[in-house]
Design goal:
The chain is elongated and about 100 Å long. It is built from 6 helices and no strands. The two termini are about 70 Å apart. The protein has a domain at about 65-105 and about 115-125. It is mainly alpha-helical and about 120 residues long.
């Protein structure tokens, strides 16, 4: 029995039980339902972009200029470090590739298991 069939059976059972309730109980349930619906908050429909703009405006009003500048400095620092680190990695790879291509190693040296260890030791020198 899948979930949809199970839910259908439960709904049938509840509807059958609803028909067996006394009239006074049904009226009390109906009035409680109406009272709950009257107290329910009404959703205001607005576009998604208006909601985002309202959120951003509310957040900006609560921030101080020092906090905004500090956040910008942190983002700029992280971006600069990432760029510098990537540039250093590329430079190291260029040096290793140049050394390998300019060397007179036979092709078998590249497939040797100790070649990786030699690369690491030559890179550290």
């Amino acid at each position: 029995m899948n979930e949809l069939h199970f839910a259908y059976k439960i709904r049938q059972h509840l509807n059958r039980g609803l028909n067996e309730l006394p009239a006074g109980t049904l009226k009390r349930l109906e009035s409680a339902r109406q009272q709950a619906l009257s107290q329910q908050k009404v959703l205001v429909h607005q576009s998604v972009l208006a909601g985002v703009g309202n959120f951003v405006q509310h957040q900006v009003d609560n921030l101080h200029i020092k906090q905004v500048l500090l956040a910008l400095i942190v983002v700029l620092g992280i971006t600069s470090y990432t760029y510098w680190y990537a540039d250093q990695s590329i430079t190291e790879l260029e040096i290793i590739d140049s050394a390998l291509l300019s060397d007179d190693l036979p092709i078998a040296a590249f497939t040797d298991k100790g070649f990786d260890a030699w690369l690491k030791s030559s890179a550290s020198q």
